[in-house]
Amino acid sequence: MKRNLRYLIGFAIAMAYLEAVVVVYLRELLYPEGFCFPLIPIPIRLLLAELGREAATIVMLGAVAFLAGVRRWERFALFIVIFGIWDIFYYVWLKALLDWPASLLEWDILFLIPLTWIGPVIAPVLISVLMIIAGFVILRRLDAGKAFRPGVRAWSLSVVGSMVILFSFMRDVDATLHQALPQPFWYPVFFLGFAMLVGAFLVSLWESDRPK
After folding, report:
1. In b/e form, how buried is each residue of 40-70, taking b as 16+ CB within 10 angstroms?
2. CA–centroid distance for 162 within its chain
3. Where do the DSSP E strands lie in 84-123?
4. What pLDDT was estimated at residue 155?
5. Cα pseudo-dihedral 182, 187, 189, 190, rounded to 10
6. Which of 82, 83, 84, 108 is nearest to 95 (CA)?
7. Are 162 and 200 within 8 A, CB to CB?
8. CA triplet 153, 158, 160: central angle to 5 degrees?
9. What angle do CA 181, 186, 192 make, to 5 degrees?
10. pTM of the model
11. In the chain, where the domains are located
């Protein structure tokens, strides 16, 4: 597993480079003078291609995690680890290729499915760090022969926290659909959702250690 994990991390970093290169091309095409808000409408053919590429990226990360792992939670842990590494290195490569973002507070288009997500770079980076930590903790537990079995409390916190974070990313419809300048990011809402995800993970560890 440790050898597989090294290969998976290399795969995630390489995929992040490919993702960054695609964004370099898109920005050269759509934002030749530099990426900024308000957003420029994306031609429908490019939009459909981008939606497909994003979906394919998730499938590829999930596929290699599935192949590398054996047990269900092992595969899940591998997926969130390489997803977090991929997302962080995406910004590392953008910084190397475009000298962007200028800071972690720079705004970005984060995702397009099911609606456009926007927000400061620090938000997905924090989520990615949490995913990496959680994934490694789960892997260590499984490697030590301990169970990982989140219960109803952990699942509930996780679902609600995820919905709160998604709301903070997708709520500004004017900026994403009508080419308006974005409203100030709702950091309190985001950090509420983030705290719920942290709580969900801690509760899942507590639930896993309880006697059946």
Report:
1. eebeeeeeeebeeeeeebeeebbebbeebbe
2. 11
3. 107-111, 117-120
4. 95
5. 100
6. 108
7. no
8. 95
9. 160
10. 0.93
11. 2-209
